[in-house]
Write a structure and sequence with these properties.
Distance between the termini of chain A: 18 Å
Number of helices of chain A: 3
CATH superfamily of chain A: Hotdog Thioesterase
Order of helices and strands of chain A: EHHEEEEEEH
Oligomer: homotetramer
Shape of chain A: globular
Helix content of chain A: 25-40%
CATH architecture of chain A: Roll
CATH class of chain A: Alpha Beta
Number of strands of chain A: 7
Largest sheet of chain A: 5 strands, antiparallel
CATH topology of chain A: Thiol Ester Dehydrase, Chain A
Number of domains of chain A: 1
Largest interface: A-C, 22 and 22 residues
Structural class of chain A: alpha+beta
């Protein structure tokens, strides 16, 4: 199984923190969204383009482990991994890294649905092609 | 000019606070939304019904004065006042009250727009009728 | 093992929705927070009191399954269950119910930590006593 | 009067949008926060450093005009201007720009307060020095 991987950096904002002085637990899902979105953009299929074609990609399951708190003004790296397995359910994994320490990790599951009916649909061609290109790029970089 | 007025209570949640230990400044606009929505429901025209008819009511201007911080678990009263003036622009005023002290106040301005085009439209009949009923109720209660 | 259970209702606000027209996935953790907080208040130990004694209760793990979307203006019931097991890790489970359908469910895990050091501490006496009272209330209501 | 100015770019995320398909009105205050924070970092006085010295800079007033909606995945430029006037109240102005159109503008007012008492304090030396350096840089670039 091939995996596609992408790193994005995010600055923690005041709006993200709570009175514990750390990032509010719900905001990690925003960070995961950013990681996922930038991975898609990186492989050439911006999520906005998928939506323009009528395909939504809602989260159907999410899991988060909070190992150490993220703090105000931290520069987080979100390391997003998509394990390509050609099933209707997409699985993404995330690590939040600060100064090379993993401070949180998690995963989300998604299925493509039609924007009008919210019924499951097959992944758009646009998406499958981008994933295929990304996989062959990964394989080539491994073989070199 | 007649005014329509409604009080709603809101509990401050951890998610609303920031690392200053108080409510994050942007979240007051959420409280104003709740005050405005409950005023509309109170006069018999839930905002969801307006949207179901294709009328959106976006905020075109907002102003907030933060007098004293709101704190975690505070039970806020949002006092919302709609000054009925039959112009296309709706003006709402808000006071946030804790233990009978006004800790913040503000205002928002809105115009009805079409949900598809975002172009200004006249206020829906549903809305005008509800406002008229609310005004005559207010006048009657004043006269008694 | 005894369980303590509490239901709270939450109105979905515009601020909670995203452009899919449904509640943003990260906001369910806010709903879980509200369920948990009201359960604690219900058994007589408001979370604010625990914090006043220097005990924080951060989330160390969270899991959410999104079965059907929650929509604007929905009146959600958050059904929170605390399975009392006298270990240092608290486990809470949640169901989000709309019109008697479970539309989402999830769980969170927590440990008490010191507010200054963020090091794990034993559950405060205040908390243990409240839980004990709640359990014996539950047992009595079962026996009757 | 000298002004200090700084541009920052922000990508609009799904979490920022609401069911109108545009950015939720309250989230503009988050964008203003980012603009303000990056202006401070740019002139050499990261806000986190001010807090480390015990100085908080809460918002005491905010004003926003929404001219055109910001949309999902838009790349916003937040243009932040600080009009240096050596009074205890800081005034910042903001423009949100998409493709060289100003789609929103606003302002915030702030005073430095002590982190423990929330009482007003004089601006920290660290801050005043950074502002002075920024002003003389601006003047020099104007004179050249």
């Amino acid at each position: 199984m091939t995996t596609v991987r992408h790193d994005t950096t995010i600055r923690v904002r005041y709006a993200d923190t709570d009175k514990m002085g750390v990032v509010y637990n719900g905001n990690y899902l925003r960070y995961f969204e950013i990681g996922r979105t930038e991975l898609l953009r990186h492989i050439g299929v911006p999520y906005a383009q998928l939506e323009a074609q009528g395909a939504l990609l809602p989260v159907i399951e999410a899991h988060i482990e909070y190992l150490r708190p993220a703090r105000y003004d931290d520069l987080l790296t979100v390391r997003t991994t998509y394990a390509v397995d050609r099933t209707p359910v997409l699985r993404l994994a995330y690590e939040i890294v600060v100064d090379s320490d993993v401070i949180a990790r998690g995963s989300t599951r998604h299925t493509f649905v039609d924007h009008a009916t919210f019924k499951p649909i097959r992944p758009p061609r646009l998406f499958l092609d981008a994933v295929e290109r990304a996989c062959s790029d990964t394989l080539q970089s491994v073989q070199q």
